[in-house]
Amino acid sequence: MEESYLVNVKGTMMVKRLLSGNEAVARGAWEAGARVGSGYPGTPSTEIMETFATYPGVYAEWAPNEKVAMEVAIGAAYAGRRAFCTMKHVGVNVAADALFFGAMTGIEKGLVYISADDPSMHSSQNEQDNRQYARFARIPCLDPADSQEAKDFMKAAFEISEQYDTPVLLRLTTRVCHTSTPVDLDAQHEHDLAPIQYPRNPAKYCMLPANARKRHVVIEHRLDELAQFAEVTPLNRVEQRSSEIGIITGGIAYQYAREVFPDASVLKLGMVYPLPVKLVKDFARSVKKLIVLEELDPFIEQQVRLLGVELFQPQNLSSPKRADQKSIFPVFGELNTSIVRASAVEAGLIAGEAEPVPEIALGDLPPRPPTLCAGCPHRSTFYILSKLKVPVNGDIGCYTLGIAPPLNAMHTVGCMGASISVAHGAAVAGDAERHVAVIGDSTFFHTGIPALINVVYNQSNVITVIMDNRITGMTGHQQNPGTGKTLQNKPSVQLNIETLVRACGIEHVKTIEGYDVKAIESTLKEWMKMDEPAVLITREECALLPSARKRWTPLQVVEEKCNGCTACFRIGCPAILKSSKMDEKYNRPLAEIDPFLCTGCEICAQVCPRDAILFRSQLARPLTEG
Amino acid sequence: MDATEKPVRFFLVGVGGQGTILASDVLAEVGLKCGYDVKKAEIHGMSQRGGSVVSNVVWARQVFSPIISVGEADVLIAFEKLEALRFLPFLQPGGLLLVNDYSIAPVTVSAGVALYPKDDALYSQLRQRSQSQTWVKGVELADSLGSAKAANVVLLGSLSALISGDADVWLEAVLQRVPAKFADLNKKAFEAGRAVVMEK
C-alpha cells in the first residue's frame, strides 16, 4: 500500500494517498462495497483487478476472456451483489454480446463495465473510442479526468446503476489509468449482508423476443430519465470564467483544456452519455465561441451539433469532407498540451507563442524497439519458423515481437485468437503454402479453442504452435487456467493443454521444451510433409518469472573457436553483442555475451556451428577442455 | 526548485528494467512532502520489453496535464546516455540535464545495423539544449557499494543536490520505497550520488 499524507486542503487536514487511476478505481469499488470483480488482463486496465484482489472480503478473478468476465459480473449483479468487470478497449469487442444483453435486462444490484481505452496505441492494435459503446447499447458512460475522479466516479457508477437499473460504462484512458495523483480516502460503504432471494423474474431476465421487445421500450425510457439526471448531477459542472471562449470537454482532455485555455469557461462532463441538453444549450448561450475538446472520436461534438447548437468554425477550414469530421482537434492519437495549443493557434482561437522553442537536430539515432527478452523461450520457435520461410499467422502477446528483425517470423496479427482462424482461412482458400498459426497459452484459452475446433471440424491442415510460457506474459505475469493458481493466489487445477488439444480432435500433438531448437525443427519439418492439422506445444516458463530467474547462468563465448560467422546474431537475442575483437581470417567481429542480460537459455549455443558458445554443463569445466 | 509560482516538470527516460518507475515514485513523493500537488505518468506494457521507457513527474500548486510536451521539461533525467539524446527535445532551453554515464546497446546496435554515438558526440549534441550537464557514473558507483541495481538511487541523490532539495526529505522518500533489507545500501547510494554534485 502507498504511503498516506496529511495534506492541508482549505485549512482541513485530510488523508491523501498517491494512487494511479487504476488503483483508485479498485479503491472506489471496494469503498462502494463491490463484492465481485472479474476481468481479463490487458494494458492499460490490468492493475485494477490486481489491486481490487488485495482488498479484504472481496472476490476477484481472471476470467479466460472478457466475454466471460462480463457475464460473471452480470451474473453476480443479478444475484444481488455489487459487481464489475475490467478489460482494455478491444476486450469490450469480445464482450460486446454480453454488454448488450446486460443493458437490456438491467440488474438487481450495481453493475459497472470498465473499459480502459488506449489512445495512441501504446500497447494495442487499434485506438477505438469506447464511449461509442455506451450510445450503441444505451447505457450511461462516465469519463474521469484523474485518480480522484476515477475513485469518485466508480462509486457514483454503482449508485447510478442501482437508481436506473442499468449497467454503467466507466471509460478510462491510458493517461488516467497510469497517472498517479493524490486521492482522498474514505471508509467502506456499509452493506446489508442478509441472504438475498435470487430473482425469479423471467420477463426481465429472459431475453426471448417477446420479453426483449418490451425491454427495448424500457431502456429507451430509462435513457430519457438519465438525460434528466445528467442536467442535475454534480458529475457535470460549469466552470464560469471568461465568456470569450467556452469549452465542452470530458476525461483527460479536461486537463489540457485548463492548461491551454486558463481563462476559458468550461462545461466539464463527467457523464459523457447521455448529454444534458439544457446544460449544453445554456452554456452555449453564455459564451461567444463554443468549442468541444475531446480525445479520439467527435463523440460529444457530434451530439452537440445534433442539438442544433452552433460551434465555433475555424476560418481556415475548407468545407468539411464528411459530416462526422472533428472541426479543430485531431481525431487520432493522444492529445497533449502542445497538440491542443497548435490546433488552437491554427484555428485562430489563441495567438501563437512569441518565442517558440527552437528545434534541434538529433541526426539518425539508433532506434530502440521492443524485442523478445534475452532468454525468451519463444525465440527458438521463431528462429525455426524464420528458417522454414513459411507464412506465420500470429496472435496477441509477447510473442507478437517475433515480427521484429532479424527473426521476421510473423506475417499477420489481428486480435486475440485470430491466428488459428486466419491461417485456416488461407488453407481453405487453397493457398499453396503451408500455414503455421502461433498463439500463447493464455490467448489459446481466451479464444483459440473454438478456432482450433474449427480447424479439426472443417479439416484444414493448419499447424498450430501453442507457445506455453506458463503465464500471461505481456501484461506482467498474470495467472491463467494453465498456471495452477488464481488471481487471489489460491491453488487451482492446471489445465493440461495437450489433453485439451486432443479432446478437440487433433491427432498429431507434441509437447516439446521451449528451448529445444532441434526437436522443434525436426517436428515441424516432419509435419510439413503430411497434409493434416497438428499442434506443437512449446513449453517453458517465461524467463522473467522469479522461479526462472533463480536458474539464470550467463554463458560464455570461446574466442578461439568463434570466427564471427553471425549464426548466433540471427536469433536476435539482446544479450549477444558484436565484440570489438575481430576474426583475423575473415575480418569480422566475434560474438560476445553480455553477462548482465544472458539467462543461459542455450538457444545460441545450439545454433552455433562451431561449438564456440559453452552450454551450462560446460561452464564448470576449464575453458581449455572446450 | 520552487513549484509554487510555476510548475516544475521532470522528464525521466531509460530502458525497461532500469528502475525509472521507482525513481519517479520517489520524485512524486518528494513533491507531496514539499506540499505540492503532484502528477506522475508512465506507460506500461509492450514498450517495456527492451524498449525506451518514459516517466513524467509534475509538481505545482495545481497540476493539470500529467504529460510533458516538447520543450517543457525543467529537468531531464536520463538513466541511459542514448535515451538522453533521444528525448532531448522535451527539455526546455537552458533546462537541467542529469545523465547516467551508462550505455545499453539497442538490438539495432548489437545486431550491427546502427552505431551507438560516441561520448564526445553525445555531449556536444546535448549542449544544444543545456549548458549545464551533469554526468554521473551511477552504475559504477552503485556497483562499488554493493549492487548495480541501486544506480537509480545514486541518480536521485545527484538530482536532490542539483535542484537544492532537502536531503532528509528525499532520503525518507527513498527509504519508504525500497525493501528494508536494502536500506543501508540505498542510503549509501543516495549519499554517493549527492556527493558527486556537491563536490563539483
From TrEMBL, chain A:
<dbReference type="Pfam" id="PF02775">
    <property type="entry name" value="TPP_enzyme_C"/>
</dbReference>
<keyword id="KW-0479">Metal-binding</keyword>
<dbReference type="InterPro" id="IPR017721">
    <property type="entry name" value="IorA"/>
</dbReference>
<feature type="binding site">
    <location>
        <position position="598"/>
    </location>
    <ligand>
        <name>[4Fe-4S] cluster 2</name>
    </ligand>
</feature>
<dbReference type="InterPro" id="IPR017896">
    <property type="entry name" value="4Fe4S_Fe-S-bd"/>
</dbReference>
<feature type="domain" description="4Fe-4S ferredoxin-type">
    <location>
        <begin position="553"/>
        <end position="585"/>
    </location>
</feature>
<keyword id="KW-0670">Pyruvate</keyword>
<dbReference type="GO" id="GO:0030976">
    <property type="term" value="F:thiamine pyrophosphate binding"/>
</dbReference>
<keyword id="KW-0813">Transport</keyword>
<dbReference type="GO" id="GO:0051539">
    <property type="term" value="F:4 iron, 4 sulfur cluster binding"/>
</dbReference>
<feature type="domain" description="4Fe-4S ferredoxin-type">
    <location>
        <begin position="589"/>
        <end position="618"/>
    </location>
</feature>
<keyword id="KW-0249">Electron transport</keyword>
<feature type="binding site">
    <location>
        <position position="565"/>
    </location>
    <ligand>
        <name>[4Fe-4S] cluster 1</name>
    </ligand>
</feature>
<dbReference type="GO" id="GO:0043805">
    <property type="term" value="F:indolepyruvate ferredoxin oxidoreductase activity"/>
</dbReference>
<feature type="binding site">
    <location>
        <position position="608"/>
    </location>
    <ligand>
        <name>[4Fe-4S] cluster 1</name>
    </ligand>
</feature>
<keyword id="KW-0408">Iron</keyword>
<feature type="binding site">
    <location>
        <position position="573"/>
    </location>
    <ligand>
        <name>[4Fe-4S] cluster 2</name>
    </ligand>
</feature>
<feature type="binding site">
    <location>
        <position position="568"/>
    </location>
    <ligand>
        <name>[4Fe-4S] cluster 1</name>
    </ligand>
</feature>
<dbReference type="InterPro" id="IPR011766">
    <property type="entry name" value="TPP_enzyme_TPP-bd"/>
</dbReference>
<feature type="binding site">
    <location>
        <position position="562"/>
    </location>
    <ligand>
        <name>[4Fe-4S] cluster 1</name>
    </ligand>
</feature>
<dbReference type="InterPro" id="IPR002880">
    <property type="entry name" value="Pyrv_Fd/Flavodoxin_OxRdtase_N"/>
</dbReference>
<dbReference type="InterPro" id="IPR017900">
    <property type="entry name" value="4Fe4S_Fe_S_CS"/>
</dbReference>
UniProtKB/TrEMBL annotation, chain B:
<dbReference type="Pfam" id="PF01558">
    <property type="entry name" value="POR"/>
</dbReference>
<keyword id="KW-0560">Oxidoreductase</keyword>
<dbReference type="InterPro" id="IPR052198">
    <property type="entry name" value="IorB_Oxidoreductase"/>
</dbReference>
<dbReference type="GO" id="GO:0016903">
    <property type="term" value="F:oxidoreductase activity, acting on the aldehyde or oxo group of donors"/>
</dbReference>
<dbReference type="InterPro" id="IPR002869">
    <property type="entry name" value="Pyrv_flavodox_OxRed_cen"/>
</dbReference>
<dbReference type="InterPro" id="IPR019752">
    <property type="entry name" value="Pyrv/ketoisovalerate_OxRed_cat"/>
</dbReference>
<protein>
    <recommendedName>
        <fullName>Pyruvate/ketoisovalerate oxidoreductase catalytic domain-containing protein</fullName>
    </recommendedName>
</protein>
<feature type="domain" description="Pyruvate/ketoisovalerate oxidoreductase catalytic">
    <location>
        <begin position="16"/>
        <end position="194"/>
    </location>
</feature>
